[in-house]
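URGENT: need a sanity check before tomorrow's submission.

F., can you look over the N-acetyl-gamma-glutamyl-phosphate reductase record below? I want to be sure the sequence and structure line up before it goes out.
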Amino acid sequence: MIKAGIVGGTGYTGVELLRLLAQHPEVELAAITSRKEAGMPVAEMFPSLRGRVSLAFTTPEEAPLKSCDVVFFATPNGIAMQQTRELLEAGVKVIDLAADFRIKDVAEWSKWYGMEHACPELVAEAVYGLPEINRAAIKQARLIANPGCYPTAVQLGFLPLVEAGVIDTSGLVADCKSGVSGAGRKAETHILYAEATDSFKAYAVAGHRHLPEIRQGLARMAGHDVGLTFVPHLTPMIRGIHATLYGKLKKDVDLQALYEKRYAGEYFVDVMPPKSHPETRSVRAINTCRIAVHRPQGGDTVVVLSVIDNLVKGAAGQAVQNMNLLFDLPEQMGLTQIAVSP
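Structure tokens as predicted:
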């Protein structure tokens, strides 16, 4: 059994990790930390886990993290980098669901996240945990930078086009919408029920923290820098991301065949039939990205629709997928749930 610890178990990503790991046949939950809730039984805070998780929250100092096989950080940005070096030295594998190790340019990371990096030497070692691109490297890693939710939906949507070199990468557009759980489990005015319900708005148009992460990933696929306009929106739903992606084709290509070939054998990417319009509810609570590709009026514009659950394929589910790869388990183990509908 894999002994797993979670640092930061009280947020939406943390409880999603608990839900998935509690039903994983090869995982034993060894520690769940929370400074504020230390001593409280997990099932008292999250009754959905009654009968499945018997642990209580502990402080990070008291938790037996160094005796774990893997530790997940479901914490705010800037926390994992403070503790990762010590865990790696103890032989523990680390999967960070925050952004501490995603961006290879440390100066660029500091600009977007407003702090100095505590262990820049580990950034170069960290493997970006998007399995559909980095599967071989993930299997050999000891430190995984789990991708962000928007970057997962956008990169998987653009990947076949950029890899094949059939799209003009100087003017890509990612028009994305997210449910309110993407803002985290906290009290902020803009995500209050009365503020977010029956409304729809764009935000961070001047620049979102996920922009450099997406650009970095697309540049790796293309072999050169790319031009990207990324505009996120807040929608009045709890879970889900819908990314509508636009680009100009450089050559005529059978788009459906391109996507089906690229994602053949990828358990967690579903290329839908021609003319499909995937909905966020079709991926609710599962680790799947559903994609549809369109060429309106047969012109040179390609439109890709990519949907994921921001808490699963966009966070906790992808982290479990990475854990499976790290420990040479079937990639889909513990992640074969059917989407919740309605």
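My own read: The mean pLDDT is 96. The CA atoms of residues 295 and 302 lie 5 Å apart. If you see anything odd, call me.
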